[in-house]
Amino acid sequence: MLEITAHLHIPDDEFAWTYVRSSGPGGQNVNKVASKAVLRWDVAGSPSLPADVKARLRVREANRITTDGELVLTSQRFRDQERNRQDCLDKLRAMIAGAAARPKARRKTKPTRGSKEARLREKKRRAGTKAGRRSGAEE
Description:
Layout: E1 2-3, E2 9-10, E3 15-20, E4 36-42, H1 51-60, E5 70-75, H2 81-100, H3 113-138
Antiparallel strand pairs: 1-2, 3-4, 4-5
């Protein structure tokens, strides 16, 4: 069971694991042992996540999700299969935790009095510069 927060849990039976030969560290061992972990998880069909978290995850990780709604993660940082598997789970936990945090709603603000005055001063200065160019061109 993958625990993301106190309220979000994903059971292990939702994950599909495959292991392939890694191109990472391992020397000659790399040609013999399938240590690269590939995690596939059906985001669209998962009952473990609320709909709003799913939607944010789909937007944030669009390049990792297939057209079938399956999230694909790989890890080949380590020489052994179990650490790569754990690394995939850690990556997934971080992704979901990021998507679970609701974005703060933006509050509209008005420009300050000083910023309005500064903008008008700058407009007058630019207008004067351009007016000076016009009067010189007419002569």
